[in-house]
Design goal:
five-stranded mixed β-sheet; 228 residues; mainly beta
């Protein structure tokens, strides 16, 4: 009898906790201007050149927070998510918050913070085998974008943007704040065209290490994201 009462007590505790928690789906939908974003076969218009196509896109979303009146009311623990356009299963994930939570902004960061960078490579989405880690000195790649561009009179040319860096003036870790009413699910649209505003790929087509060029690209990160 005592065992039965004990099991019943813990079952009710479990049910109570489950009922007081809300599961939110965060979905990342990629676009290019007014077009759906796709890899390989699709060509898009781009400034200063005829067209651009993409063969790879991956980036980190980290340190997700919910904010109410400029005050953080909830943070996700161990908040590191690698979004890879080649893997549809990485383009959505869940967060779990108290049921009564009130918030007016979703805050997230693109990239990996300096504390995690100096901690060295880890497991899960931070595993070096994911292809998003340089070295202990250079740290993680926050965004990796690769493809080809075409310019009149020239053969197709490759471009590679591996945007990272966490030290001092070369820090490319960027905060994104999105206004939202409290709701269960959030669809975040990511407009890749925003990265190429005022960019001439024939001049700036390879960024493969931390530096001033990487910082300039990272400053456009916030303009990529909006809540649908």
């Amino acid at each position: 009898m005592r065992l039965f009462i004990g099991l019943w007590f813990w079952f009710m505790v479990y049910i109570g906790n489950a009922q007081s928690t809300v599961m939110h789906a965060l979905t990342f939908t990629h676009i290019y201007g007014k077009n759906t974003f796709a890899l390989d076969s699709v060509c898009y218009p781009v400034q200063h050149t005829d067209s651009i196509s993409f063969s790879h896109l991956s980036y980190y979303i980290s340190n997700i927070e919910l904010v109410y009146k400029n005050k953080t009311v909830w943070k996700e623990e161990n908040s590191y998510h690698l979004i890879d356009v080649e893997n549809i299963y990485t383009q959505a994930f869940h967060i779990y918050t108290p049921q009564s939570l009130v918030y007016d902004h979703l805050v997230l960061y693109i990239g990996i913070d300096s504390t995690t960078n100096v901690s060295g490579a880890m497991g899960g989405d931070l595993d070096p085998t994911k292809g998003m880690y340089w070295t202990w000195q250079s740290g993680f790649i926050n965004l990796k974008l690769e493809g080809q561009y075409k310019k009149s009179g020239f053969k197709n040319q490759e471009f590679q943007y591996h945007i990272g860096g966490y030290q001092n003036e070369f820090n490319t870790y960027r905060k994104i704040s999105l206004k939202t009413a409290a709701k269960k699910d959030m669809d975040i649209w990511v407009d890749i065209e925003k990265l190429f505003s005022n960019t001439d790929l024939s001049v700036q087509h390879h960024i493969m290490s931390p530096g001033k060029e990487a910082v300039l690209v990272s400053e456009k990160f916030a303009s990529m994201f909006k809540l649908k």
